[in-house]
Model the fold of this input.
Amino acid sequence: DAMVIQNPRYQVTQFGKPVTLSCSQTLNHNVMYWYQQKSSQAPKLLFHYYDKDFNNEADTPDNFQSRRPNTSFCFLDIRSPGLGDAAMYLCATESSGTNNEQFFGPGTRLTVL
Amino acid sequence: SQQGEEDPQALSIQEGENATMNCSYKTSINNLQWYRQNSGRGLVHLILIRSNEREKHSGRLRVTLDTSKKSSSLLITASRAADTASYFCATDVVGYALNFGKGTSLLVTP
Done:
């Protein structure tokens, strides 16, 4: 089945230790998003790719970077995680030209010790 | 920035009852979508309603949109325990980014 896959589902890292979260999709969608969601809050958009074009939200900290080496894969790099970066990170895809329906992965729960 | 705001924040009902959640937003939209999120999982798209539509149905779901009041409602009829989840409205304003509300946490007890 076509889907959005996130690995790992749970990630534990230490304060200041770089971490990479991955997202892959078999939907062949050209738009990919990364959201951060903290407990009982709305998903907050960090950035998105429209094809290879990177679009950073104005309030996304510099600590967060992203890479999209090809259509199928997208990575979220947190260079120096702080305690405040503990959250669920959601990847989503979308096919441009449609109704903006987004397809989400199951998320990666990040814990920072 | 957050655009939508759901009401109530939490809702507890018994199986078989109907659940109604409301969403208000601030600016003009192209469409409004509702998503469901089970605990610790990703979001699942439920239904989309365009700005020129007033009501839409999908199975046990009924969505209304009132653009003059900048509000939408999601009705789940004959609720089941499996409907327990958080429900988010998301508005499509400009470009590709959706703005999500804080969500309504629904608990359906047997």
